[in-house]
Amino acid sequence: MTKRTGAQLLVECLLEQDVDMGFGVPGESYLAVLDALYDVGNSFRFINCRNEGGGAFMAEAYGKLTGKPGVLFVTRGPGATNASIGIHTAMQDSSPMVVFVGQIETSMRHREAFQEMDYRAVFGSMAKWVVEIDDADRVPELVARAFQVATSGRPGPVIVALPEDMLVQMSDAQTRGKVAPVKPHITGSDTQNVMAQLKAAKKPVLIVGGGGWNDTGRAALEKFAEANNLPVIVSFRSQDLIDNHSPSYIGDAGFGIAPEIRTFLDESDLLLAVNVRFGETLTDGYSLFDPRYFDKNLIHIHASEAEIGKIFTPLLAILSCPNAAMTALAAQSKIANVPWAERTVIARQAWEAGLNPPAQPGNVDMGQIMAYLRNRLPKDVVVTNGAGNFAIWAGRYLHYGNGATLLGPQAGSMGAGVPSAVMAKLVDPTRFVLCFAGDGDFQMNGMELGVAQQYGVAPIVLVLNNGTYGTIRMHQEREYPGRVSGTGLVNPDFTKIAEAFGMYGEKIESTEDFEGAFERVCASPTGGLLELMIDQEGLAPKATVTGLRKAKA
């Protein structure tokens, strides 16, 4: 074998793993990798981001959108810590991701060298695996393992540290072929046991979420649910797992959970939970399902054994990826004369009725705007958002049909929407991409519009401007009435920011102005931004937001 540097070997290994795009901010700690990328030309697109946090969000959302690991390159120290927000999101959202981090020379360890960090200590609790490659001969072995870990079982992020001296070492090691992720599969007896429990139930509910789904699994989910008139509730920001037009879809269980969904779950006698984690969000701060008194019949199907039985002890514990589980269940004969059919119909009607919230305060009524967007957006739309009360509009008041995609951080990370939207247009410039952002949320990673400008892609961004960190202010006013502190914002003119990036920009000060402005921004070949001037009380749907711990307050 011809000898080449560790950096050249790394790039060869990435191509073997079918990686053709990566994100990052260039840094001196991995100059050798950047040089090796020069040699492969168009075989690998290095997307030059404006901040490592924005790049990390792009890589995380890439994993969600494509099912392939998002690849991120960041420099040591500050670059790595900037990227931690996207790494944490990838872990909580179960998104496959491989992060390559520059590292000091091995001879300088433990001296607090320039930007030195112990990556195992820093990322150990927010990644599936952290490894440092000390020897160039081991690059093929450890890179293959990184992709194996990132994609197997419950997907997630892997951190690979690259010491500078290793990257210039010479090696004749042989690259390895593309890894095959390990995905656990449901057994025939497991499938029979699930069907038996369903037949014995009076008020079952199917709860789905998490990462690692594919088109086959989503289609099987819909087929299984509809064949058995099962009501389906999705976990936080998982609305695109099932066609929202399906008679089985009844809503989501996320922040600001609708009272009717909370009651429905509380009254159910069988929880068929597929690929969900029973975290704080799904359980409404553990006030919905209290671990001290939990007495529900629970069937928990998950790709990770670490999630099953972690909080609630299931009646049936099944280790399986969601796609295999739903495919097997969809192949079963439907249950005849189910006693819960009418309950599903009533719950579906309640969800449909909730699509039209009461009139919102102020001159810009987001309820009316969402009604327009439901009819205007294409079926294969990609919707992105960051975190804040504004995101409830995209999550609860749009229809996600077959082909639509929602890229929103289940970890609740602000600043994810703009980078995710830019990434989606980079992957497929032909798809319509719409980003929802709050005013504070936009300012965290809005500069990633520079990536859109550089690479000639055209997302559309809606900035909901109410001059405050709305979610935190809502909590303040509930917990500390009359003592609002630290949540006000003095904002720039967001339309001017869009124009500075060569995009179309327009300010919306009344509901009636939105339709024409939206048509104009859609006609812009460079994409654009609409700044919606929202009343402080109108950022989140009036009479809908309950707050995470309202039941405890």
Explained architecture:
Helix content is 36%, strand content 17%. With 553 residues, the protein is of the alpha/beta class. It folds into three domains: 168 residues, Thiamin diphosphate (ThDP)-binding fold, Pyr/PP domains (Rossmann fold, 3-Layer(aba) Sandwich), CATH 3.40.50; 166 residues, TPP-binding domain (Rossmann fold), CATH 3.40.50; 173 residues, Rossmann fold, CATH 3.40.50. It is globular. The termini are far apart.
Keywords:
3 domains; Rossmann fold; about 550 residues; alpha/beta; about 35% helix; single chain
Quick overview:
The chain is an alpha/beta fold and 553 residues long. The protein contains 20 helices and 20 strands. Helix content is 36%, strand content 17%.
Count of DSSP H/I helices: 20
**Can you identify the CATH class of the largest domain?**
Alpha Beta
- Strand fraction: 15-25%
Q: Output mean pLDDT.
A: 93
Instruction: Going across the biggest sheet, name each strand in turn.
Output: 3-2-4-5-7-6
Which structural class do you get from the secondary structure elements? alpha/beta
**CATH architectural arrangement of the largest domain:** 3-Layer(aba) Sandwich
Approximate helicity band: 25-40%
Query: Can you identify the CATH superfamily of the largest domain?
Result: Thiamin diphosphate (ThDP)-binding fold, Pyr/PP domains
The name CATH uses for the topology of the largest domain is Rossmann fold
Give a short account of the largest sheet.
6 strands, parallel
Low-confidence stretches: 543-553
**Alpha-carbon distance between the termini?**
67 Å
Taken together, the total number of domains comes to: 3
The total of beta strands comes to 20
User: Given the C-alpha coordinates, what overall shape results?
Assistant: globular
Radius of gyration: 24 Å
